[in-house]
Design a protein that fits this description.
The chain has about 290 residues and is α/β, with parallel strands linked by helices. It contains 10 helices and 12 strands. α4 links the parallel β4 and β5. The longest helix has 26 residues. It is elongated and about 75 Å long.
């Protein structure tokens, strides 16, 4: 969900500089840190959209703060603009080497600084949009195949303990497309996707990995809790309907296969294969079922 207002973190140990920046940036949500340690804590906790970082501060200078932020997964993508009185070429060069995206010399021109801030925020918004397009399925808005496998592999490598894979397939989907047309088929996919997304347990990665195929990777303490949750999702979907252009009620169901990782599970592909075997068993048993393997 996009923030209503962009957030900016000001890092400066001089009150007059902070006051000037607060007045200049009144259209944004602004947080303030007066030293490097506080700046790192705020940036990690709040993940601002932009950081305006003073270079000369006691204990930890701006270079070190920037290096630490760029080394952390949670903060490495936050753009950092240095604001400093230092004008020597070595400082300017190092500012960019440690990860700064811009360098503004004090005393700065307010309108120029504001223009630079707006430019960096617009660039960040564009990059976020491009990243969303690259990682999410265009029709449903959930993770696409590439992003699902990227996130799921990270989760698998973190720990196999309590890890479950769920493979989901829309039953007789080709018949729906053949009988009612692809536009209605698209509506079925969207409605099923939103129903799953709204009802699955919290710690699950959800992605569309094929036309009518979906996958979940979940970490849960108890097998029965996950199985019951997927069964509840299945029951919710079988109650849904879409009215066709010819005023017919179109019903649809899903089949689900679940597998749990154990000490012998070597990688994510093996776990998903086990879930896929369970999925085909669900289809062989009449579809609209949940099978745990």
């Amino acid at each position: 969900m996009q923030k209503s207002k962009r957030t900016i973190l000001i890092v400066d140990d001089t009150k007059i500089n902070i006051d000037i920046l607060l007045d200049l940036l009144s259209d944004y949500d602004v947080a303030v840190a007066i030293d490097g340690k506080s700046a790192i804590e705020i940036a990690t906790g709040e993940c601002p959209d932009l950081i305006l970082l003073d270079l000369m501060m006691p204990e930890m200078d701006g270079f070190e703060v920037c290096e630490i932020l760029k080394s952390k997964d949670d903060t490495k993508d936050i753009p950092i603009v240095f604001i400093t009185a230092k004008t020597d070429e070595d400082s300017i060069e190092r500012a960019y080497e440690v990860g700064g995206i811009d360098y503004v010399v004090k005393p700065f021109k307010p309108r120029e600084l504001l223009a630079r801030v707006k430019t960096q925020l617009k660039l960040k918004e564009l990059l976020e949009h491009l990243e969303f397009i690259a990682s999410h399925d265009e029709m449903t808005g959930i993770y696409n195949r590439r992003k699902f496998f990227y996130e799921a592999n990270k989760k698998f490598e973190d720990s196999k303990e309590g890890l479950f894979a769920v493979m989901i397939d829309i039953d007789h989907f080709k018949s729906i497309n053949d009988s009612y047309g692809h536009p209605l088929g698209d509506k079925v996919i969207k409605l099923i996707t939103s129903t799953i997304a709204e009802n699955i347990l919290k710690d699950c990665i959800f992605g569309r990995i094929g036309g009518e195929e979906f996958a979940l990777l979940c970490r849960e303490n108890y097998k029965d809790e996950l199985v019951n949750n997927i069964e509840s999702v299945r029951r919710s979907i079988e109650k849904l309907e879409i009215i066709s252009d010819s005023k017919k009620s179109v019903k649809f169901t899903i089949s689900n296969g679940i597998a749990q990782a154990d000490a012998n599970t070597k990688n994510l592909d093996e776990l998903l294969k086990e879930a896929d075997i369970a999925l085909y068993k669900a289809k062989d048993c009449g579809r609209n079922k949940v099978v745990f393997r």
